[in-house]
Design a protein that fits this description.
The chain contains eleven helices and twelve strands. The chain is an alpha/beta fold. It folds into two domains: 114 residues, NAD(P)-binding Rossmann-like Domain (Rossmann fold); 182 residues, 3-Layer(aba) Sandwich (Rossmann fold), CATH 3.40.50.720. Helix 5 crosses helix 7. The two termini are 20 Å apart.
Length: 310
């Protein structure tokens, strides 16, 4: 049995400082073998996970010596924080380590969706020359609405502003007099943000309050031709409602890196079949070679520090 179990992929080289002092089991396949995972954590004092390993009451009961959970990323919806607290298990996300990667993904997605020519390969290869169909739109002068104004959203805002977008944000948890509002227009309520936004980018956690925040009613409040980018969490957008809004032409396109059901299956992904104006990626907005190194290093240091403090 190992002292620290790593159940999902990471930059393996970052484990060296941990391996110098503890026995480490690095096995990314454990995330898909729950039975074996529960056996391997029996003597573990630490576990390192991404977003698929469920750290719940069952796992905590199987790991009576567990002291710390290192999260390779920032979302915590796969970790039962209340159960961890009951078991005196510390939880450490890699806060900020992948913010650059996510911000760049959002900007890239916005540019692709406004321009709308990213799906023309097959037509050009097939001998077509559809210039009139693919004139697209410029991002400069468009209104970008940010839902949430944390670290990543602020990085998106600065980059979007440099491209000439007009940026507004809605965040009820950031005081109205906070100096951070100086860089964007503060929108006091969610509906008002929707009504004036040519594009929406989501930067909030998945909670009871944010589940299906973008549903049919909310989508209908957006101007015709608006685009959606979701790099936050699946479930904040009602995927079926979004697909329907795209099919009827009200929403011009979307980039989704997260989904209500992950991994997407042939059945759950069918709602997006045939939609050329949708970009679907497998939860990789925050994953680059550079961010993976930063996230891995930070997570190892978080785990190592916590174990030494025990």
């Amino acid at each position: 049995m190992a002292d620290v179990v790593v159940s999902e992929f990471m930059n393996e080289a970052a484990l060296a400082p941990l391996q110098d002092e503890y026995g480490v089991l690095f096995d990314p396949e454990l995330v898909d073998d729950r039975t074996r995972l529960l056996v391997e954590v029996e003597r573990a004092v630490g576990i390192i996970v991404r977003n698929r390993t469920q750290v719940d009451e069952e796992l905590l009961a199987a790991a009576p010596l567990l002291k710390v959970v290192g999260r390779l990323g920032v979302g915590l919806d796969n970790i039962d924080l209340e159960a961890c607290a009951r078991h005196n298990v510390a939880v450490h996300p890699a806060t900020g380590a992948n913010a650059q990667a996510v911000a760049e993904y959002v900007i890239g997605a916005l540019l692709m969706l406004f321009r709308g020519a990213y799906h023309s390969n097959s037509r050009v290869i097939g001998g077509e020359w559809p210039r009139a169909d693919l004139q697209g739109r410029e991002s400069a002068g468009k209104r970008l609405g940010l839902v949430g104004f944390g670290t990543i959203a602020r990085m998106v805002a600065s980059r979007a502003s440099a491209l000439g977008l007009k940026v507004g944000a809605y965040d009820p948890y950031l005081p109205a007099d906070d100096q951070l509002w100086g860089s964007v227009d503060r929108i006091a309520d969610f509906d008002s943000l929707l009504e004036v936004s040519d594009a929406i980018s989501l930067h909030v956690p998945l909670t009871d309050d944010t589940r299906h925040l973008l549903d049919t009613t909310a989508l209908d409040k957006l101007p015709a031709g608006a685009i959606i980018v979701n790099t936050a969490r699946g479930g904040i957008v009602d995927d079926a409602a979004l697909a329907a809004a795209i099919r009827r032409g009200h929403i011009a396109g979307a980039a989704l890196d997260v989904f209500e059901v992950e991994p997407v299956t042939a059945q759950t992904g069918q709602m997006f079949a045939g939609l050329d104006n949708v970009v679907l990626t497998p939860h990789i907005a925050g994953l680059t070679a550079e961010s993976n190194a930063r996230v891995s290093d930070m997570t190892v240091q978080n785990v190592l520090r916590t174990l030494k403090e025990q």
